[in-house]
Structure formats: C-alpha cells, structure tokens
Amino acid sequence: MSEPSASSSESGQQIPPGVMEALLRPSNVRPVSRSLASFSGGVTDVSMPEADFLLNKWDLLCPRCGSLILRTGVGKLVEKPSVQMEPATRSPTLIALLPSLPEPPALVSWWLVAPSPMEFENIGFSKSLSSGDGAQMKLLICAECDLGPLGWSEVGGSEFWLACSRVGYRA
Length: 171
Hints:
By secondary structure, this protein is mainly beta. It has two helices and twelve strands. The longest helix has 6 residues, at 19-24.
C-alpha cells in the first residue's frame, strides 16, 4: 500500500500542501520549565491561594523531559517531614536534576495530590519499598522518561506526595 500523496486521497479530496509533512514530522518541542530554586520567593512564587490552603500555580513538569505531570490547581501545598526516598549514592546527573532532600524529620514543601492517582496527567510508580519506619511505600517517577524519585505514596493510600523542589514549573 502506498502513502497518500499531498495532492489527493482515495476519495478524491485535496489535501492542503504541507499537511502530510506536518503529520509525519516528529514533535520534538518540549515545554520549558523552571526549577523551584529559580524563583526568588520559593514556594510562595509557585503557589496560589484557594480557600484556606495553597494550590500549585503552574503546571508541574518533569525536569528532564518536560512531560506534564500535574495540571495547575490540583496539588495542595503542605509542609511535612522529609522522607528518605533514595540510596546514599547518586549519579551527578541525578543530583543536578533532583536536589537532595534534607534528612528526616526536617520539614519539606510537598504537593499533595489526592484522592486518586488519576489526578495526575503522567506519573509512574516503583515497586513497593520499605520506608524507614517499616511502612510500605512506592516512589513516584516520570512515566515518560523514568526520572525519579519525584515523590512517594503509601502502598494502597489515597495521598500522593511530590517534592516541590523535584518538579519543574511551566511559568
């Protein structure tokens, strides 16, 4: 079977010039994101008030591939103790993309996503792991490029936590 020509299709209708080329061209355009560290006001600059809490002001993106992780206004800003999510040794590339979190119980800014993982646009989960207190957790990663951990959730839980410093912001 041959590819349709740019001038006609099987039904005899004319296809405008450039349409086939546009459809066959790969989409390499990725959204540009900013890291939390690039905002002078920190989490204050990336959150917006809603009733008695703060929500994410911009879409949250994967810091490596730019994939949309969470839409504006879905994540609730929460200060909560840090969580040990990774081994002590990390590659220099990972360190550049995902800032280290302080040792627990230091407070960290998190985006709380609830009540379902369906609130996310694009997220992946690791296998179950044991946390420091013995609870079972899963790590959140970018479903497109597998960068992570971006956050965590308890196995079977309805709360999903993204570290504010580990996602990009479409500002």
